[in-house]
Amino acid sequence: MAAIQSFSATHPGDPEPGDLIEIFRPAYQHWALYLGDGYIINVTPVDEGPPATLASAKSVFSRKARVRMQLLKDVVGNDTYHINNKYDSTYPPLPVEEIIRRAEYLIDQEVSYDLLGNNCEHFVTLLRYGEGVSDQILSQPFS
Predict the structure, then answer these.
(1) Where do the LRAT domain residues begin and end (predicted)?
(2) Ranges of H-type helices in 33-95
(3) Second label for 93, Cα 20 to 30 Å away, from 33, 59, 103, 123?
(4) Is residue 42 scored above 80 in pLDDT?
(5) This model's pTM is above 0.90
Protein backbone atom coordinates (compact mmCIF):
# COMPACT_ATOMS: atom_id res chain seq x y z
CA MET A 1 0.00 0.00 0.00
CA ALA A 2 3.02 2.28 -0.07
CA ALA A 3 1.79 3.66 -3.40
CA ILE A 4 -0.97 5.68 -1.70
CA GLN A 5 0.52 6.63 1.66
CA SER A 6 0.97 10.33 0.89
CA PHE A 7 -2.24 10.34 -1.14
CA SER A 8 -4.19 8.90 1.81
CA ALA A 9 -3.02 11.71 4.05
CA THR A 10 -5.16 14.22 2.16
CA HIS A 11 -8.09 11.95 1.31
CA PRO A 12 -10.27 10.17 3.87
CA GLY A 13 -9.98 6.48 4.50
CA ASP A 14 -7.38 3.79 4.14
CA PRO A 15 -9.01 1.35 1.72
CA GLU A 16 -8.59 -2.39 1.97
CA PRO A 17 -8.81 -4.77 -1.01
CA GLY A 18 -12.48 -5.31 -1.91
CA ASP A 19 -13.68 -1.94 -0.54
CA LEU A 20 -16.11 0.15 -2.56
CA ILE A 21 -14.79 3.64 -3.33
CA GLU A 22 -17.28 6.45 -3.95
CA ILE A 23 -15.70 9.33 -5.89
CA PHE A 24 -17.48 12.67 -5.78
CA ARG A 25 -17.49 14.31 -9.21
CA PRO A 26 -18.98 17.80 -9.68
CA ALA A 27 -22.35 16.48 -10.93
CA TYR A 28 -22.43 12.79 -9.97
CA GLN A 29 -20.72 10.01 -8.02
CA HIS A 30 -18.38 7.54 -9.71
CA TRP A 31 -17.76 4.13 -8.14
CA ALA A 32 -14.68 1.93 -8.11
CA LEU A 33 -13.48 -1.15 -6.25
CA TYR A 34 -10.16 -1.08 -4.43
CA LEU A 35 -7.76 -3.86 -5.48
CA GLY A 36 -4.77 -3.00 -3.27
CA ASP A 37 -1.39 -1.30 -3.64
CA GLY A 38 -3.07 1.95 -4.69
CA TYR A 39 -5.05 0.40 -7.59
CA ILE A 40 -8.78 0.31 -8.29
CA ILE A 41 -10.95 -1.28 -10.94
CA ASN A 42 -13.75 0.72 -12.55
CA VAL A 43 -15.67 1.16 -15.77
CA THR A 44 -14.86 3.98 -18.18
CA PRO A 45 -16.14 4.91 -21.64
CA VAL A 46 -14.77 2.63 -24.34
CA ASP A 47 -12.99 5.47 -26.16
CA GLU A 48 -11.42 6.94 -23.02
CA GLY A 49 -7.75 6.40 -22.36
CA PRO A 50 -6.21 6.50 -18.90
CA PRO A 51 -6.54 8.30 -16.60
CA ALA A 52 -10.28 8.54 -16.00
CA THR A 53 -11.32 11.89 -14.59
CA LEU A 54 -14.05 14.27 -15.68
CA ALA A 55 -14.28 12.51 -19.03
CA SER A 56 -15.90 9.53 -17.31
CA ALA A 57 -19.13 11.54 -17.43
CA LYS A 58 -19.22 10.44 -21.09
CA SER A 59 -20.15 6.95 -19.92
CA VAL A 60 -23.59 8.31 -19.01
CA PHE A 61 -24.31 8.60 -22.75
CA SER A 62 -22.58 5.41 -23.83
CA ARG A 63 -23.97 1.87 -24.04
CA LYS A 64 -20.51 0.31 -23.67
CA ALA A 65 -17.76 0.68 -21.10
CA ARG A 66 -14.26 -0.71 -20.63
CA VAL A 67 -13.12 -2.24 -17.35
CA ARG A 68 -9.87 -0.60 -16.31
CA MET A 69 -7.36 -1.06 -13.53
CA GLN A 70 -5.96 2.36 -12.60
CA LEU A 71 -4.31 4.12 -9.71
CA LEU A 72 -6.86 5.49 -7.26
CA LYS A 73 -5.05 8.84 -7.11
CA ASP A 74 -5.24 9.20 -10.91
CA VAL A 75 -8.95 8.41 -11.05
CA VAL A 76 -9.81 10.71 -8.13
CA GLY A 77 -7.69 13.58 -9.45
CA ASN A 78 -8.78 16.81 -7.73
CA ASP A 79 -12.08 15.34 -6.57
CA THR A 80 -12.71 13.67 -3.21
CA TYR A 81 -13.63 10.12 -2.30
CA HIS A 82 -14.50 7.90 0.61
CA ILE A 83 -14.81 4.20 1.33
CA ASN A 84 -18.51 3.32 1.15
CA ASN A 85 -19.41 -0.33 1.71
CA LYS A 86 -22.98 0.82 2.30
CA TYR A 87 -24.68 -2.45 1.37
CA ASP A 88 -22.72 -4.67 3.78
CA SER A 89 -25.66 -4.91 6.19
CA THR A 90 -27.98 -6.06 3.38
CA TYR A 91 -25.66 -8.19 1.23
CA PRO A 92 -22.80 -10.19 2.76
CA PRO A 93 -19.52 -9.39 0.97
CA LEU A 94 -17.87 -12.24 -0.89
CA PRO A 95 -14.46 -13.39 0.36
CA VAL A 96 -11.79 -10.83 -0.60
CA GLU A 97 -9.86 -13.39 -2.66
CA GLU A 98 -12.98 -14.07 -4.76
CA ILE A 99 -13.72 -10.35 -5.20
CA ILE A 100 -10.19 -9.72 -6.47
CA ARG A 101 -10.19 -12.80 -8.71
CA ARG A 102 -13.51 -11.75 -10.28
CA ALA A 103 -12.24 -8.19 -10.74
CA GLU A 104 -8.92 -9.22 -12.31
CA TYR A 105 -10.73 -11.49 -14.78
CA LEU A 106 -12.63 -8.47 -16.15
CA ILE A 107 -9.70 -6.04 -16.63
CA ASP A 108 -9.61 -4.61 -20.18
CA GLN A 109 -12.91 -6.24 -21.15
CA GLU A 110 -15.71 -4.29 -22.79
CA VAL A 111 -19.01 -4.46 -20.89
CA SER A 112 -22.48 -3.08 -21.45
CA TYR A 113 -23.39 0.13 -19.64
CA ASP A 114 -26.76 1.62 -18.79
CA LEU A 115 -27.17 4.54 -16.41
CA LEU A 116 -30.35 3.13 -14.88
CA GLY A 117 -29.75 -0.60 -14.74
CA ASN A 118 -26.05 -1.30 -15.27
CA ASN A 119 -23.91 1.62 -14.11
CA CYS A 120 -20.55 1.91 -12.35
CA GLU A 121 -22.11 1.27 -8.93
CA HIS A 122 -23.87 -1.85 -10.23
CA PHE A 123 -20.51 -3.04 -11.60
CA VAL A 124 -18.57 -2.76 -8.33
CA THR A 125 -21.37 -4.08 -6.13
CA LEU A 126 -21.64 -7.12 -8.40
CA LEU A 127 -17.95 -7.75 -7.73
CA ARG A 128 -18.21 -7.23 -3.95
CA TYR A 129 -21.56 -8.90 -3.22
CA GLY A 130 -22.32 -11.08 -6.22
CA GLU A 131 -25.33 -8.85 -6.89
CA GLY A 132 -25.33 -5.53 -8.72
CA VAL A 133 -27.24 -2.84 -6.83
CA SER A 134 -27.38 0.94 -7.00
CA ASP A 135 -29.43 3.61 -5.33
CA GLN A 136 -27.92 6.50 -7.31
CA ILE A 137 -30.97 6.51 -9.57
CA LEU A 138 -34.21 4.57 -9.33
CA SER A 139 -32.69 1.40 -10.67
CA GLN A 140 -33.24 -2.22 -11.37
CA PRO A 141 -30.80 -4.97 -10.34
CA PHE A 142 -27.79 -5.61 -12.58
CA SER A 143 -28.39 -8.58 -14.84
Answers:
(1) 20-136
(2) 72-76
(3) 59
(4) yes
(5) no
